[in-house]
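Lab notebook, entry 272. We have the chain sequence and a SMILES string for zinc ion, and the next step in the workflow is to get a structural model of the bound complex before anyone spends time on docking refinements. Request logged below.

Task: model protein plus zinc ion, output structure tokens.
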Amino acid sequence: MNVPTHSLLVALATLLLAGCYQVPVTGRRAMNLVDDKEVTKMSLGMFDDMKRRHKVSLDRDRIDQLNRIGERISKVVFWDMPDADWEFIVFDEPKVINAFAMAGGKVGVFSGLYKVAKTDDQLASVISHEIAHVTAKHVHEKLSRDLAVGTVGTVGMIGGMVAGAPGLTVDALSQVYGLTTGISGFAFDRAKEKEADYIGLMYMARAGYDPNAAVSVMEALELETAKDPIQPGFLSTHPSHPERIIQLMDAMPKALAEREKSSVRTGPILVR
Ligand SMILES: [Zn+2]
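Result returned:
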């Protein structure tokens, strides 16, 4: 074998090894071509920007509730996000029924979400879903795919393969997070939404919350979207809520078993 071919193979092998990760809970293997630290650094900047652009809520009850839930879930995901510097913010946006989580442990809830998430268990199901997108590195995967087809800049690629290239742009990242279009239009593909539903269900159960609340939130979303078909984000229309509900119901026995094992369980377990 001649030398250039050999070094190319070594480079490819390095890329494949370094760029592979395993999604928590599901164990799915996925490719990652972007630099974790780069994504986190940019996410932190974007979160600060969100705090400047949106009114941060001063509602004590909601802030306390979100922090109480966030603390329990962050303990459960500790090993999936060991470097997270957690921060949970309520934004005063009563028309926006949505929430998001970013690399680095930054979580935002828009106050419209309280229309469908009225209890700790229900809010925990949404937060868990959003954090699941982060631990599963769905943003990294989406960016990696975009990099592969050349729709975003090549920096942040691993291993100095493209040394000297300009960095991953904030624009590209915010597009993936869905923040450029005013939160609406944000949705991962259906497989990733369902994966986040499944992982989130296990997280909330491990944190001691009632996983049945994930179903009641989805039902409430279904009612809201019937009222107003143009709804963003967490209630993204694909996959449909009924399809997501069926998957949640399928996973419910496993989730209830996880909750049974949970050391932070507080309330009684409802057997249904
Ligand atoms: Zn989602």
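Notes for the group: Residues 153-166, 180-185 have pLDDT under 50 and may be disordered. Worth checking against the assay data. Residues 129, 133, 188, 193, 196, 234 surround zinc ion (CB under 6 Å).
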